[in-house]
Amino acid sequence: MTTDNSRLRADREQKALGGIRSCPHHGCFLCGAPGITVYHRLRDRIFSAPGEWSLKECPAKDCGLVWLDPMPTEEDILVAYQDYYTHRGEGAPKPPSLRRRMSRFWDRCYLFRKYCSGAGVVPAWVWLLGLYRSLQPMKKAALDFNAMYLPVKPGGRLLEVGSGGGDNLRALQDIGWVVEGVDFDPEAVEAARRKGLHVRQGLLEEQRYPDEFFDAVTMSHLVEHVHDPLHLLLESRRVLKPGGRIAVVTPNVASIGHRLFSAAWLPLDPPRHLHLFSPQALSSLADRAGFQKKRVFTTIREAGNVFIASRHIKHSQRYVWGSVQPRLLKKAAKGMALMEWAYLFFSPLAGEELVLVAEK
Q1: Which residues lie closer than 8 Å to 193 by C-beta, 6 or more apart?
Q2: What is the Cα–Cα distance from 54 to 51, expressed in whole angstroms?
Q3: What pLDDT score does 99 carry?
Q4: Are the CB atoms for 351 and 299 separated by under 8 Å?
Q5: Residue 95: what pLDDT?
Q6: Is pLDDT above 50 for 9?
Q7: 303 and 352 in contact (C-beta within 8 Å)?
Q8: Buried residues in 309-327 as b, exposed as e (16+ CB within 10 A)
Q9: CA 350 from centroid of its chain's CA atoms
Q10: Which residues pair with 355 in a beta bridge?
Q11: Mean pLDDT confidence for 192-221
């Protein structure tokens, strides 16, 4: 009893000082194996959330999950998001230049060619213009992400869980989905609503969507933020129609960038990233949630940004989100992304972003 009272008193004192209460998570939630500590006493290197955090790794060869231990409590995790990037104000959009308008036209040709052909026959000229974008590895990776790797079903309902400020949701709406979003962050929800999007505030299970309501469910960089990823995927499966698809994008803990930067790797992002997945771990999660016909693959979409930010963290223990970078560093980052793209021909599961596409 004395120990319990001391713990409660310490928790109250920590919270009063702006801290984040935590609880132990010694074992892998996927396979139950006890974790091995791989990083000690990491601090938030981006948004200055309080506390020091350690990460454990599952030793099972067919798993490789990495997680925080101890892990922030569900009651206190919002403290880590007080200065998050979704809370940054947006300036007035600049009128697009002719060059930018032409670039968007090429983008739409690629997206229509690859993801919207179900809406009708693709004209030959659109097919050819879209083919040009497919020959540009970095641009192709960004556009595939914009479509969340899912062929558009004309008139189909799509739910984005963790819709943030709404940029991804608007891109999906633009290519033909009937979209809706949900996010627990009230400031992010308000930002999305200002864009004219239908977004609910709260957790997915709180919305009480009907069974088999959506044709697709997407989540980009969300599953690593939640305390119970299995429950999230089970609820996502419940609201999907038979044959409906889920698309999940998350950092790849087995990436080249993680191997290169180790503890300085940007997507470790303590204490917001609670679970980090390997390809095997994400596949196992989909299996446990009852999904089938799954594909797990990786992309280079964030390779350049991860290189820049991780390099700053390695040298200064700090990265300022959205800061202007020297031109030479941006060129080096682009070079690193292209090198990673070439490496994926030999090791296809080593990209910075991990993608799951599966069917109910």
Answers
A1: 166, 199
A2: 10
A3: 80
A4: yes
A5: 66
A6: no
A7: yes
A8: bbbbbbeeeebeeeeeeee
A9: 16
A10: 249, 297
A11: 96
